[in-house]
Amino acid sequence: MTALMTVENVGRSFGGFVALSGISTSFERNKVTAVIGPNGAGKSTFFNVLSGALAPSSGAIRFKGRDVTGMKQHRFVHLGIARSYQITNLFSSLSVEENVRVAAQALTTRYDLFSHRARYGQLLEKAHAALAQVGLFAKRNRVSRELSHGEQRALEIAISLVADPELLLLDEPTAGMGPQETKDMVELIERLAGDRTILLVEHKMKMILGLSNRILVLHHGRLLADGTPDEVRSDPEVRRVYLGQNDGYS
Ligand code: ADP
Ligand code: MG
What we know:
Elements: E1 5-14, E2 17-27, E3 32-36, H1 43-50, E4 58-63, E5 66-67, H2 73-79, E6 81-84, H3 96-107, H4 116-133, H5 149-161, E7 167-171, H6 179-192, E8 197-201, H7 205-211, E9 214-219, E10 222-227, H8 229-233, H9 236-241
Parallel strand pairs: 3-8, 3-9, 6-7, 7-8
Antiparallel strand pairs: 1-2, 1-4, 4-5, 9-10
């Protein structure tokens, strides 16, 4: 079985600044991989490149054996690669259901053969299925801004799920969450991981160690380590540059 995604010697620069350099790795199906590293290490840039939001400056990305380097982000989405963002990105005055339906609509083509009415029903069905997956179906008619922070993050994930992605990238899904919301998010990610490949950027080490099959460590835009949680945890170089700042793995 080939890897779902392969990353070959990928780099990304901004002007003269090298944000990512020489990254080679691959992601197997139905595994959870955490990407960690100090602030400014290049984690979000890496996610931008893997999700098609930014083209790499060098190297290649393959998805299911197909070269997707330089393709537009909507093509990535249609191929089955979706991401949720670190910053909340919702229409706060729209209902929960509307936020997801609008996202589903954005995926359809203008040349759709269905009538407007049939299409609306279909989009709503898709939205409901995505909301059910994240546990927000019962709150579908609430105005989005009334949701708790944790629920809003779950809603953003529902929005990524309408494309039914095989590869889901989550950038700091538990940012700003307390212990209970974090626990709920971990349970959600575990459920989603059943039949999906998940990459996540996270800082909460205890959570990462419990959830991930594998950890990548970025440092100054380079891949410092790539291994199982145990391997990465006991890597002296990783301890020096990263874990040392995270006493207690909190
Ligand atoms: P992380 O997510 O690990 O904190 P980022 O990927 O956001 O790090 O950023 C890595 C480095 O690249 C930082 O020094 C940041 O300032 C720089 N960077 C990120 N995006 C841009 C951009 N669009 N233009 C210029 N510099 C950028
Ligand atoms: Mg970031």
